[in-house]
Amino acid sequence: MERPIFKDIGTQEIELDTPGLMIDLDFLEYNLNYMNTFIESKGLNVKPYVGAHGSPAIAHKQVEYSSTSGITVSTLGQAEVFAQNGLNDIFISNIIYNKSKIKRLCSLAKNVNITLLVDNLSNAQDLSDAAKFSGVEINILLVIRCYEDSLGVLPGTEAQEICNNLVNLPGVNFQGLFGKYINNYVSESGPEDNSYNVSEFNKKNKESVEFAQKILNFREQIQINGIDVNSVVYGSTYDYLDVASLSGITDIVAGSYALMDAKYKALRTEFKNAARVMTCVTSLPTSKTIITDGGRKAIGGDLGSPEASIKGAIVTGLSAEHGNIEFEWENENLKLGDRIWCIPYDITACVNLHDYMFGIRGGTLESIWNLPARGHYR
After folding, report:
1. Burial group, residue 24, by CB count within 10 angstroms (0-12, 13-18, 19+)
2. In which element (H, E) is residue 118 found?
3. Which of 258, 282, 308 is the last residue of a domain?
């Protein structure tokens, strides 16, 4: 694990080493408050996806809000890390299948309220057997499939049959349904200039609402057949606004809203870009080109282009340790050693590259937060 070059709290941001992941604490707190105030006004809960930032410190800030119903992670490894850091209500938005992982899951469930996904009875039976043997209980959500080739099961006869069996399995508690619309428009690889057609984005959000309604219709169907459904967990940062209008959704999973990134910048303007990578100008090859020490290993440029903090500056390329930035006009003011801040295209990919982040308020270092969940894929 990389260790930060020590700087006292109170150090000016520009005196910190580069490249470094800087978090504007005022913007972070604004984003958290905005989301939770909105969610609370709709009578819903949010299960923040903390894999988007990997920080127990930020997760603790998120669960302080009354509208937060636990945290969301992607993997068992992430769940273990956040549990070790005092988070005790964790939703793993994934299927855990092999026996060694199920054993780890049951060990975790002895001290943590765990919820996870299933989409078949074989896996559910394995979870039931292990939970019963370990003397624990595990909460389960059935995944409803968005597309034919995606995770989950289509709403209908097969899903009804799975639910009928889930409610009778010892050691597991059937809590309800989970779905996520896979928005191919807001994907890992967006437009080259990070500009989106808003009408197309809204069209995709409409499709997400239609998919959510299918889940809610299925919920009504199984409830008529005598199965209690306590939760319908759905949504993401991109569609939370539309999904929140649906009656029956209980929890929304959203992650990128906390720190934001260039991918969502033009589409979710109500949030602020709290995360930026501070880089240093290391070369001035031409009057319209600079090179910085911020490359793919610091910013994560394999999915899309980050955005530079200077107007008229465009990030044209990233190598492993260097970033190329071109200007629309002749550069007369920048000099070697100057700082350039870049908004990462995808915040989750960026955070996963760092072992710590710097909390900045008013241009001054206020905190250093470790990122112990990064790299936990298993």
Report:
1. buried
2. strand 113-118
3. 258
Specify the higher pLDDT residue, 106 or 375: 106
Per-residue pLDDT tens digits for 217-269:
999 999 999 999 999 999 999 899 999 999 999 999 999 999 999 988 878 99
Q: How far is CA 42 from the centre of its chain?
A: 21
The secondary structure of residue 86, as a DSSP letter, is T
Place of tokens 């119903």: 69
Which residues, other chains included, contact 222 with Cβ-Cβ below 8 Å and sequence gap of 6+?
Answer: 159, 160, 163, 229
Run of H or E including 360: strand 356-361
Instruction: Tell me what the mean pLDDT of segment 7-18 comes to.
Output: 94
Check whether residue 254 and residue 303 sit in a common domain. no
Q: Which pLDDT score is estimated for 194? A: 54
Domain containing 31 equals 25-258
Residues in the chain: 378
State the burial class of residue 148 (Cβ atoms within 10 Å of its Cβ: 0-12, 13-18, 19+): exposed
CATH number at residue 75: 3.20.20.10
Together in a domain, 115 and 240: yes
CATH code at position 330: 2.40.37.20
Helices 198-224 and 157-166: crossing angle in degrees, nearest 10, is 60
pTM for this one?
0.94
Residue 264 lies in a domain: no
- Residues 326 and 183 placed together within one structural domain of the fold: no
In this structure, the answer to whether residues 82 and 167 fall within a common structural domain is yes
